[in-house]
């Protein structure tokens, strides 16, 4: 079988009933989910950075005490150590709310729509784009591994 004759694996091939418009719509929704996944990663960055900064405050308070500035150490400790970043919330609670009420719903909706339009197959749009853009027969342009 030559490179040009290798069919798409079934998990990326367009279902027979799927129209161009449906594949494009499912692809755009998947792209939106990928953007949300990137935002979620940044939310986790925020969570970890704030947590690290809060722990660093302990060292700052200690250094202030060593410098004989108990008054400032107490101010920092009282105002900042363990402070909520949003009303009533630490960052882990923000992450949990995001995951439970937005991210999981977004993922479920994308999977449902993909199921309705593309038989549950992922990256159908991208698979077709790859096929149209690759140079058949060229090394590193193979249809699949």
Can you describe this structure in just a few lines?
Helix content is 66%, strand content 0%. It is mainly α. The two termini are 14 Å apart.
Can you describe what's shown?
With 145 residues, this protein is mostly helical. The chain has one domain (19-133). 66% of the residues lie in helices and 0% in strands. Helix 1 packs antiparallel against helix 2 (70-79) and helix 1 (20-66) runs antiparallel to helix 3. The longest helix is centred in the N-terminal third of the chain and has 47 residues, at 20-66. The model has no long low-confidence stretch (mean pLDDT 92). Residues 1-25 are annotated as: Disordered.
Oligomeric state of this protein? single chain
Please give the domain count: 1
Low-confidence stretches: none
Radius of gyration, rounded? 25 Å
What structural class results from the helix and strand content?
mainly alpha
Region (Disordered): 1-25
